[in-house]
Amino acid sequence: MVATIAVRDLKKSYGSVLAVDGISFEVEQGEFFGILGPNGAGKTTTLEILEGLREPDAGQVTVLGMQPWPRNAALLPRIGVQLQASSFFERLTAREQLRTFASLYGVSQQRADEMLSTVGLDDRADARTEKLSGGQAQRLSIACTLVHDPELVFLDEPTGALDPQARRNLWDLLRQINSDGRTVVLTTHHMDEAEILCDRVAIMDHGKILQAGPPAALVRGLDSPVRISVESGQLDLAGARKLAASAGGTDGVTDDGVSLTIATREPAPVLAGLAEQHALTGLRVQGATLEDVFLSLTGREYRA
Amino acid sequence: MKGAAFRSLSGAMFRGYVRDRTALLFSILIPILFLVLFGSIYKSSSTPKLSVLEVGRVALLDNAAGGLHGVLQVTKGDNLATALSQVRKGNDDAAVQQRGNHLIVHYSIADQTTASVVQTVFASIVQQADQAQVGATHAYQLTTEQVENKSLKPIQYLAPGFLGWAIASGGAFGAAITLVTWRQTKLLRRLRLAPISTASVVFARVGVSVLVALIQMAVFIAVATTPYFGLKLTSDWWLAIPIVVAGTLAFMSIGLLIGAFAKSQQAASAVANIVILPMAFLGGSFIPLNFAPQWIQDVSYAMPLRYLVIGTQDVMARGEGVGAALPAIGILLGIAAVLSLISVRVFSWDYI
Ligand SMILES: Nc1ncnc2c1ncn2[C@@H]1O[C@H](COP(=O)(O)OP(=O)(O)OP(=O)(O)O)[C@@H](O)[C@H]1O
Ligand SMILES: [Mg+2]
Fold it and tell me: How far apart are CA B212 and CA B218, in angstroms?
């Protein structure tokens, strides 16, 4: 069984800019795969090579067992692509837009209209796409991507400019796409999004994959301390240090005047100690996130 | 399925065009407005000097030349056929023959003002000659013959002129803006990902522009043939259709080239303006070439618009046929081919 996507030593540069610098990865059938990284990491370039829109400078790429470059007509109907921009025809309504894309793939208008309901745009069917909200446009764009029922879906920052509420709505849709058995490859800036949606992620920066694996495994592999914080003033710094030390070691205690934070690998005794001293007001317990993984890999803050 | 995809693609593009108020305004309404405005102004225009072709020897002209020096510019014509064609083309205002006492004046009333001046001038020449022959009235007789068999008016220059301009800007702006916009929204790439050929995308877009051009032509003819303007189409007017199609292709290729370089819609439309507007003045759209200064007439040969304007004028107004249409079509298609090839070479999917 060959992987749905197999990439080996992929390289691509634009003039002197090395956009993709020798990456390798595989995506299995039915997987939800995330490519994660800050601006200019090379995510879009990687996707465009997989989609057959760009010719790689070096390396091998197979998608569904085929070469995407040069333009491969046998591959096109089997993949669905949402580009980073909302690629619509000018001045068409949502319904017309979707029907036009459907007809390009020989898909019936009826199926196009069903797709419009699937993404919850029935009530906006007759609105011009220019008039749709960011989230609605994004959903329509995904509908255009899915209208021909592709087995492999590429989504380039589908939640790009959305507010948190709209992002959450879209996540449900994305999960649904994947649970229907499709393989989904998504790029995102948002670590939390990748953590929630993806079976596996590859963290990219400067054209290289720094690390790849299931988000939980990456975080666990980090073996980073848990941060426990409570409102300041309930406990002095010395007391907190003592508590942490007695719990079995600390990775630092800080008090910024608002919160007192104890970083520890043994959260249970620390929490018990805090409870004993009735110092639990404003309690927050934070485990490591993918952001910490990025931080530990690059030595710098993750800035999208 | 191929046909259905092509149809829906064309349909989508056409709907997008029709819903674009600005495009409709600029491609149809404003040119028509110009036609109406200038059609009314030019109605009372006149030309300063009559250029007359002398076919054979016309003794009367020698006699009269002294008094009419400021009015007539006489040149020797080779034979009647070529002289008539010169008059028909508007290069000369009249061709004159004398057979004994019979003076025959051939003229065109493509410009009615010139036509009436020709008639008046020659009537007065004959009258003078008559008076000189003491006692013998009507020794000379004036017969004037139109080279066209239908009546023509200034609208015959203006309609092809403004139509040419409308089609030129429609084609150039349409292609340039579409290319830039589709590249910006990545629609171009998105279409490449659909299992349809590049040719069907291109043909759909060109088809829409050609359709729009033919609509422009229909509207122009409809307005110009109203009794107020009185356009009378000559028999081979339909040859204007292939000329307009070829013109659309030529100007779309100009737009394509602009779109290949322009980085934004604003830049694209600014450059298209810089190209099209001077061409409208130098290519015979805004200043009918017959009335234009010599240098403009010379420069006009380098303007693609000239061949569209003169071509449609020849077949719609001057009663010329395939012989006039084919060179115009050939030149326009040639321009389209060359510029499209260059555009393909410099084309890029994104801006670098
Ligand atoms: N068409 C292009 N021409 C030249 N350079 C490009 C082009 N596209 C991308 N680049 C450069 O290649 C690098 C990688 O770009 P890419 O678009 O793949 O990043 P990305 O991870 O998708 O970023 P973002 O999160 O901003 O979308 C960047 O430095 C970018 O400036
Ligand atoms: Mg990107």
Answer: 10
Output the DSSP codes for B34-77: HHHHHHHHHTT---SSEEEEEES--HHHHHHHTTTTTTEEEEEE
CATH class assigned to A5-220: alpha beta
pLDDT at B352: 47
- Gap between the Cα atoms of A44 and A19, Å rounded: 9
User: Cβ of B8 and A14 within 8 Å?
Assistant: no
B275 lies in some domain: yes
Mean pLDDT of chain B: 85
- Establish whether the linkage from the previous residue to B288 is cis, with ω within 30° of 0: no
DSSP code, position A77: G
Q: Are residues B134 and B171 located together in one domain of the fold?
A: no
**What is the extent of the structural domain holding B125?**
50-146
Residue A46 alpha carbon, nearest atom of ligand 1: 18
- Tokens representing residue A287 in the block: 């485990």
* Residue B328 pLDDT: 96
Cα–Cα separations (whole angstroms), residue B261 to A85, B23, B188, B206, B335: 21, 21, 16, 20, 18
CATH number at residue B86: 3.40.1710.10
| Pocket test residue of A10, A16, A17 for ligand 1, highest count of atoms within 8 A of CB | A17
What is the CA B21 to chain-centroid distance, rounded?
A: 26
In a domain, B279, yes or no: yes
> Contact, B253 vs B181, CB < 8 A?
no
Domain boundary among B146, B172, B191: B146
Task: Examine the domain organization and report whether B313 and B192 are in the same domain.
Answer: yes
Residues B161 and B97 in one domain: no
Q: What is the pLDDT of residue B210?
A: 96
Query: What does R_g of chain B's alpha carbons equal in angstroms?
Result: 25
Let me know whether B259 and B332 are in one domain. Answer: yes
Tell me, what's the pLDDT at B47?
Answer: 46
- The ipTM, to two decimals, is 0.83
Instruction: Report yes or no on B269 lying in a domain.
Output: yes
Mean pLDDT of the region A165-191: 90
Inter-chain contact B9–A106, Cβ cutoff 8 Å?
no
Q: Same structural domain for residues B212 and B266?
A: yes
B149-197 pLDDT, tens digit each: 333 468 888 899 999 999 999 999 999 999 999 998 899 999 999 999 8
Distance from CA of A107 to the nearest CA of B (A): 9
Does residue A199 have a pLDDT over 90? yes
Identify which has the larger pLDDT, B52 or B42. Answer: B52
Which residues make Cβ contacts (< 8 Å) with residue A140, sequence separation at least 6? A86, A88, A94, A97, A98, A116, A119, A121, A129, A132
**Counting every residue, how long is chain A?**
304
What pLDDT score was predicted for residue A169?
85
What tens digit of pLDDT does each residue of A162-177 get?
Answer: 888 888 888 998 999 9
In a domain, B80, yes or no: yes
Cα A280 to Cα A267: distance, rounded to the nearest angstrom: 14
Q: B161 and B134 share a domain?
A: no
